[in-house]
Model the fold of this input.
Amino acid sequence: QVQLVESGGGLVQPGGSLRLSCAASGSIFSISSMGWHRQAPGKQREWVAYVTSDGSMHYEDSVKGRFTISRDNAKNTVYLQMNSLKPEDTAVYYCTAQIATVYSGRNDYWGQGTQVTVSS
Done:
């Protein structure tokens, strides 16, 4: 079984920064990709960023130049450094990963989410 646990959310003023972390644990054989989605109140869940096994990073247009995704393969952990935060970045941020376990093929996993609030 696989579990994803996010941390690092909180309240920050516009223009501030936060760093989110997501650690995967369980009977992990390999991780193909890890990334982040977010969902703001009254809006659909949106893709934010992800990194693939070859190290390629991809970003949604609204966060390009402000957010940076990184991955520590040894720790099965993905990070999202969020700079120049805007009120419209306020959302619950969800970690997601494509993981193959010791006992099964590759599947998609989701964390519980961490709240990010950008407000003065």
